Amino acid sequence: MLNTVHLLAIPGLLIVYDLWKYLLRRHRQALSYPPGPKGLPIIGSFFDALTPRTGLETQWAIFRDMGHIYHSDVLHIDVLGDHTVVLNSAKAAEELLERRSGIYSSRPTMYMANESGWGWNFATMPYTLWWRLHRRTFHQHFRSEAIATYHPFIRQATSRLLRSLSCIQSTTMVTQYDDLQAVVRQHAASIILYTTYGITEQEDMEAFVKLVNNAAESLVTFSHGNFLVDYFPLLRYVPAWFPGAHFKRKATRWSQLTSELVNKPWNQLRASISSGTAISCFGTKCLQKLDLTFNAADATEDTSYLGMSKTDSDTKTEEIVRNCAGTAYVAGSDTSVSLTLISVLVLSHHPEIQAKAQEELDRVLGSTANSSQLPDFSDRGSLPYVEAVFKEILRMYPSAPLGVPHYSVADDVYDGYFIPKGTTVVGNAWAILHDENLYPDPLTFNPDRFLRTEPQRGAPPAKHSLNPDPELYAFGFGRRICPARHLALDTSWLVLVCLLATCNITRISSDNTEPKSNEIDPIVDLVDGPVVHPKPFKSCITPRSASAFELMKSGYEVGVEVEA
Ligand code: HEM
Question: In this predicted complex, what is the ipTM?
Answer without folding.
Answer: 0.99
